[in-house]
Design a protein that fits this description.
Largest sheet of chain B: 7 strands, mixed
Strand order of the largest sheet of chain B: 6-1-2-5-4-8-7
Distance between the termini of chain B: 22 Å
CATH topology of chain A: Arc Repressor Mutant, subunit A
CATH superfamily of chain A: Winged helix-like DNA-binding domain superfamily/Winged helix DNA-binding domain
Largest sheet of chain A: none
Helix content of chain B: 10-25%
Number of strands of chain B: 9
Largest interface: A-B, 66 and 51 residues
Radius of gyration of chain A: 17 Å
Number of domains of chain A: 1
Helix content of chain A: over 70%
CATH class of chain A: Mainly Alpha
Structural class of chain B: alpha/beta
Number of domains of chain B: 1
Oligomer: heterodimer
Shape of chain A: globular
Structural class of chain A: mainly alpha
Strand content of chain B: 15-25%
Number of strands of chain A: 0
Strand content of chain A: under 5%
C-alpha cells in the first residue's frame, strides 16, 4: 500500500466514527454503516479535486447529508426511535456511575434522540452537525452552504428547543 | 439527574464497531485498487521524524497525515499504543510540516522510563501525561524551535549522564482526531476544539 493510501486510511480512522454518528442520527444503524463506507469511497474518488481549506470533515458531512437525503427518499426518514437505534444509542461509557444512573442516562439519551427527530429540519441539521458530528459552526456553515453567523444563532435556538422538547417528553412519560 | 440533551447526545453518539471498520477498510482497499494513485516523487513525501530511547525503551515517531477537526466534551482515545506530545498549543494536530515539527509520537518499547509507572505497550494512553512530562523534564521537548534542547531528535540516551531537569509546563491530555491522546502545554482542550481525554 502506498503513502497516499496509508494517509487515506488514517483519515478514515480519524473521521469515520463521527460520520457514522451523524448518519445514525437520521437513519438506522445498518444503513448508516453502509452509507459511511460510501462517503469514504466518494472521498477517495474525489481526493484530488476536493478543496480542503477547512479539513475533510465539512466535506465528508456534506456528502453524508446528500446520501442521507437520497436514502430518506427511498424509505421514510426516522421520526422516532426504533428498536435498532437502541443498539447503538444511549450508552455513555462511564464506569464511575451506578447502573441505575446509567439506565437513567440512557433513558434521557433516547428521549433526546426522539426530541431531535421531532425538530424542524433547520434546527435538526445544526444539532446533527455541530453536536453529534462535532463540527464547529464555521465548518457546519461550509457543509450547509450558509453564513457561519446564521448557523451559530440557529444552533443556540435549536439547543434550546431540543432541551424543551426532551423535557416535555420526559415529563409526559412521568405522568403516564 | 438531568443533563443538557445536546451534551448527552454528543457523549452517547454511536461509534463504528471494530468489525465495521475492518469491513470499510476492505471496501476502501477495493476502491483504491480500482483507482490507484501514482507514487509520490522525492520531495513530495511527508517529512518524518523519529526518536529512539536507547535503554530506557522509549521510542518516538512521527507520522503526519489527516486533518484537524473540532471536538468538544470528553472522549476515550481509540488509539492507545501511542500518544502524541506537543511542544506548543497548536491546532495542526496531524500535519507535521504545518506545525513546524512541534509534535512527536511516543511508544513504550521495553523497559520502564524513569519516573513513569508501568510499561505495557497497550497502556501508553494511560501514561501519556507522565511520558510527555518526562520528555519535557529531560529536554527532549521544549516550547521553542527546534522544540528540543539540543538532543538529537533521532536518539535519546537515558543511559548517559543524568539528564538535565527542565521545567515542565502545565500539561493537558486531549483526544486528537487521530484517536490518540494529544498532550499539550499551557492550554485547555476546549480552546483547541478537542475533547478531554478520558484516561480511565
Amino acid at each position: 500500500m502506498g503513502e497516499v493510501e496509508d494517509d487515506f486510511t488514517v483519515m478514515y480512522l480519524a473521521h469515520a466514527d463521527r460520520v457514522f454518528a451523524y448518519l445514525c442520527s437520521q437513519l438506522g444503524p445498518q444503513e448508516a454503516e453502509e452509507l459511511t463506507a460510501q462517503v469514504f469511497c466518494e472521498a477517495w474518488r474525489q481526493r484530488t479535486t476536493v478543496r480542503l481549506d477547512q479539513g475533510w470533515m465539512p466535506w465528508l458531512i456534506g456528502v453524508a447529508r446528500n446520501l442521507a437525503r437520497q436514502a430518506a427518499k427511498q424509505h421514510v426518514r426516522r421520526t422516532r426511535v426504533e428498536p435498532d437505534d437502541e443498539t447503538v444509542w444511549g450508552v455513555i461509557p462511564d464506569p464511575a456511575i451506578s447502573l441505575a444512573d446509567a439506565d437513567e442516562q440512557r433513558h434521557q439519551v433516547l428521549a433526546a434522540l426522539t426530541a431531535l427527530r421531532g425538530l424542524s429540519e433547520a434546527d435538526r441539521e445544526v444539532v446533527q452537525m455541530c453536536v453529534i458530528a462535532g463540527l464547529s459552526p464555521a465548518d457546519a456553515a461550509l457543509a450547509l452552504g450558509e453564513p457561519a453567523s446564521t448557523v451559530r444563532s440557529r444552533l443556540t435556538r435549536a439547543r434550546r428547543r431540543l432541551a424543551a422538547a426532551t423535557s416535555d417528553l420526559l415529563t409526559c412519560e412521568e405522568l403516564i | 439527574m438531568n443533563h443538557d440533551p445536546a451534551d448527552l447526545l454528543a457523549a452517547a453518539a454511536p461509534r463504528l464497531s471494530a468489525e465495521a471498520k475492518a469491513r470499510h477498510l476492505q471496501i476502501l482497499a477495493a476502491e483504491q485498487a480500482a483507482t490507484p494513485t501514482m507514487p509520490t516523487v522525492n520531495g513530495a513525501r511527508r517529512r518524518r521524524r523519529g526518536w529512539i530511547g536507547a535503554t530506557a525503551g522509549i521510542a518516538v515517531l512521527v507520522v503526519g497525515a489527516g486533518t484537524a477537526a473540532a471536538w468538544v466534551g470528553r472522549a476515550e482515545p481509540t488509539v492507545r499504543d501511542t500518544a502524541r506530545c506537543f511542544a506548543i498549543a497548536t491546532t495542526e494536530f496531524d500535519d507535521f510540516d504545518a506545525s513546524d515539527g512541534a509534535f512527536f509520537d511516543v511508544t513504550y518499547l521495553s523497559d520502564p522510563v524513569p519516573g513513569v509507572e508501568g510499561n505495557p505497550s497497550d497502556q501508553t494512553a494511560e501514561h501519556a501525561l507522565e511520558v510527555c512530562a518526562h520528555t519535557w523534564r529531560i529536554g527532549g521537548i521544549a516550547a521553542t524551535k527546534p522544540f528540543h534542547r539540543g538532543l538529537d531528535p533521532w536518539y535519546v540516551d537515558f543511559e548517559g549522564p543524568e539528564p538535565a531537569t527542565y521545567p515542565v509546563p502545565d500539561l493537558v491530555a486531549c483526544v486528537i482526531p487521530t484517536g490518540q491522546v494529544g498532550v499539550f502545554p499551557d492550554t485547555d482542550c476546549a480552546d483547541l476544539g478537542l475533547p478531554e481525554a478520558d484516561l480511565g
